[in-house]
Task: inverse folding
């Protein structure tokens, strides 16, 4: 079948061909993000105020700011607490979110991704070991996550883009 | 590809001045181009399981409606509604017999403000054909917004008056209430006062179907006489606002606009979508704001309710149609027991009212699942009793009245629904 | 004051070994003193609007139940249930006529494991008085926990078998499922197989009242013959687990234990409360963590549902009692139309089944409001038709059958409830 042949990739390339391609890709990404370079950088640091460089994080920031967890920064919950895991997660989230933010497609609502959910659970347990000492990790063997019951910790059910009816009341 | 890049935000043009009676949404659109764009989406039609904006015939889907509305316009023509931009086209299209009064124009055109200013209350009795000639634009910006400040305003007198009669001042409504009240100008049960044809909302005793029925009973109001059963009937029309009262959503401060005008991202900012349609067409925007579950889950919950309601609605139609058949054949007998027949008709009137309340409401029960199913249950019991009364009238035999439930513990009343703080 | 300081945490004593058949909760209590303390709270009785643990007579509150259960033990004695610690006392107390078989012991004592080990399946046919002598402890720890690991376990064979018949392996259940399944050992509809008296759960066709009815119809099962109407009847018993299926809560993974065994703080840690009672008695623990609204609001929502359900339940009782009256007077006439009478009885059987399903269920509809109201609507329609059939049997006159709804769009089925991912 000649059609198949036509599309066959012509491996292998020379190393410098890879090199040129990578540079072009990196320049491309850098150019897109570079329009507002601080935003990408936010992921390297832990300050919640940096997260709201992207205004789309505003509802999450506001709800957190008014919660009992105000003294725990975002990354206390949203990143694993070991060096490699933490920076791997940050890098991954930084690339994905920045891409989505500048290039799209922007989801109508943001949701914690499945791996984020596991990280969150581990962090709840990390801080609240004492209180759950007798019930154990509720997630085990197909159980529920802490935030299935503690639905308002720390963002409230309202993290979407709509107005909070409770705030509209007068 | 263009689909991937965020929509470009169009800056509201500050130079545009909007006239006091400006009915043309395109003119407003110069000032608010993004809002106008979403408004134009109302032109897109599509069907959902039980709603949507495809103009299909309800009479084809539910043939028993022909029996139920016999002798009334709705037995000939009864179609599903569609978007706001079609309101004028649709009223122009229907059978002239249904366009009984100038009053109809109230909820169909953005020229209403102008017309009301020109004719005052006398527009109610004008020939509708005449008013339709003057109406140039379907429902549009001026129906809900102040042309100067863009604030939400109530433009229809019937709503202001209904509130005033209950001693409430509608100008004191909160922003959140206004996000439902602008809809309550039209998406409500109404009647025309006999003689004056004045548009009136029958809420003086409350919003529940039972309260409105009682209001009509005391008024002795009748929409038409049923052709076969000769029962003096009531027709319910779109009690969307009423059914929604005291639902889980309403009690949590969720407004019509939250679900039917969800915020959408335009570029990097968000605006209220002015595409007012079935939330099934944009579940993630409409529900996702407050609900973290999947779209599939949310759709399935809507259908869980709607299937139950539709199931009982259709079964209710069967019993009410059965009552009509029984009454009309009994009434043809010369030996019929007239007193029993009158009772049968009175029960028929009530049963069909409860049924029609849910049939005419537009969410197939979703706006308040528990209340919807309660009303359908009322309807089926009353229709069954009506059939029994007709059979008694016809046969001469009779059953004892239903036994009393005894010293009722005072717990059955649905009157007690309170509104405690949240 | 003592009320203000947090309870002191009692360290679980590690030395205590619990025997394989240890039925005495006090022995378990040595190892888990805090859990035992909360378990003892089951002794505190109090009434709520529609439930609670005050042992009042349902027959006094709803006198029509006497008519409904005429010819059956429940027409003489029918009381509200109370806590787990009373299970033995309560079954000892009742009229001997109601204690039909050894099978009854299954859900009443912590000695069950031992008894089953001793007698095997032959316990079903033992005289209950004999088994009651051997039963020393009411429902307790061993009914839900493994004495070695303390893990949740299913101890009642009927539940395992019901799952096995559907090809499901109950030992594969997740932790979250187990938090409901331990309750499903008892809080379910059941029947005794004819002859063997073997305890069986009628779920082979599904959990809905309609599915269970169909199961009994095909089996030709009957609990008793109604004394007045001579209808072969079914009795529903506590289908708490069944009604809960597909409710909003169940579909969101909320288990029985979440509401009836909420976590409570003891010192610096929290444990599952083992005081299993009406959540109205501890709304803030039972609901407050998932729902941030006020206690007043939450209570009012429970009542909003319960009032509607009770209202339709009582009205349903009236129509069903009316059907019984009609059938029994018709059956006394020598000229009665026997075929119609049989139809009337068949409708009576179904109508009362749907009614009783909600009456016997323990949450006055809260476990699934929409399903509860749908079933009550079914019940009222069927009872009305039963009355008509009886009047036809009695009078010789007759009404045409209910008209068909026409080419149904296939949307009415409640069968379609799916379980999409969340
Ligand atoms: Ca529509
Ligand atoms: Ca109880």
Result:
């Amino acid at each position: 079948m000649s059609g198949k042949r036509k599309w066959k990739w012509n491996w292998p390339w020379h190393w410098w061909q890879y090199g040129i391609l990578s540079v072009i890709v990196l320049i491309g990404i850098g150019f897109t993000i570079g329009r507002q370079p601080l935003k990408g950088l936010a992921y390297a640091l832990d300050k919640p105020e940096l997260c709201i460089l992207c205004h789309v994080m505003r509802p999450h920031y506001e709800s957190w700011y008014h919660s009992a967890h105000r003294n725990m920064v975002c990354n206390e919950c949203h990143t694993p607490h070991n060096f490699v895991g933490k920076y791997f997660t940050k890098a991954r989230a930084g690339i994905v979110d920045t891409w989505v933010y500048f290039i799209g497609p922007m989801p109508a609502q943001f949701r914690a991704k499945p791996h984020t959910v596991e990280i969150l659970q581990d962090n709840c347990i990390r801080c609240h070991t004492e209180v759950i000492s007798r019930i154990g990790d509720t997630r085990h063997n197909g159980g529920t996550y802490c935030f299935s019951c503690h639905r308002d910790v720390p963002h409230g059910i309202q993290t979407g883009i709509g107005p909070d009816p409770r705030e509209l009341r007068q | 590809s263009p689909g991937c890049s965020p929509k470009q935000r169009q800056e509201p043009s500050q130079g545009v001045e909007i006239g006091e009676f400006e009915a043309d949404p395109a003119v407003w659109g110069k000032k608010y181009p993004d809002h106008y764009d979403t408004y134009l989406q109302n032109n897109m039609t599509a069907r959902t399981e039980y709603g949507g904006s495809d103009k299909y015939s309800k009479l084809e889907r539910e043939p028993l409606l022909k029996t139920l509305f016999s002798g009334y316009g709705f037995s000939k023509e009864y179609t599903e509604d569609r978007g706001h931009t079609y309101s004028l086209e649709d009223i122009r299209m229907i059978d002239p017999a249904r366009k009984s009064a100038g009053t109809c124009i109230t909820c169909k055109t953005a020229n209403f403000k102008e017309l009301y200013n020109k004719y005052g209350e006398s527009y109610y009795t004008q020939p509708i054909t005449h008013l339709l000639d003057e109406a140039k634009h379907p429902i549009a910006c001026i129906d809900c917004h102040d042309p100067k400040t863009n604030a939400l305003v109530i433009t229809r007198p019937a709503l202001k008056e209904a509130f005033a009669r209950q001693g409430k001042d509608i100008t004191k409504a909160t922003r959140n209430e206004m996000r439902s009240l602008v809809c309550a100008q039209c998406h409500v049960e109404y009647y025309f006062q006999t003689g004056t044809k004045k548009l009136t909302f029958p809420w003086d005793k409350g919003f529940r179907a039972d309260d409105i029925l009682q209001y009509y009973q005391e008024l002795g109001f009748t929409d038409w006489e049923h052709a076969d059963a000769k029962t003096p009937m009531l027709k319910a029309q779109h009690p969307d606002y009423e059914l929604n009262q005291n639902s889980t959503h309403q009690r949590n401060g969720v407004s019509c606009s939250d679900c039917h005008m969800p915020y959408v991202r335009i570029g990097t900012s968000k605006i209220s979508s002015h595409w007012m349609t079935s939330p099934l067409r944009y579940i993630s925007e409409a529900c996702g704001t407050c609900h973290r579950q999947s779209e599939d889950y949310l759709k399935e919950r809507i259908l869980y309710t709607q299937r139950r309601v539709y199931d009982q609605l259709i079964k209710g139609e069967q019993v009410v149609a059965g009552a009509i058949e029984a009454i009309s054949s009994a009434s043809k007998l010369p030996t019929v027991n007239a007193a029993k027949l009158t009772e049968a008709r009175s029960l028929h009137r009530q049963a069909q009212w409860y049924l029609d309340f849910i049939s005419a409401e537009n969410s197939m029960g979703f706006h308040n699942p528990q209340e919807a199913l309660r009303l359908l249950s009322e309807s089926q019991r009353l229709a069954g009793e009506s059939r029994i009364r007709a059979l008694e009238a016809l046969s001469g035999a009779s059953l004892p009245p239903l036994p009393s439930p005894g010293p009722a513990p005072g717990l059955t009343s649905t009157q007690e629904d309170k509104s405690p703080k949240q």
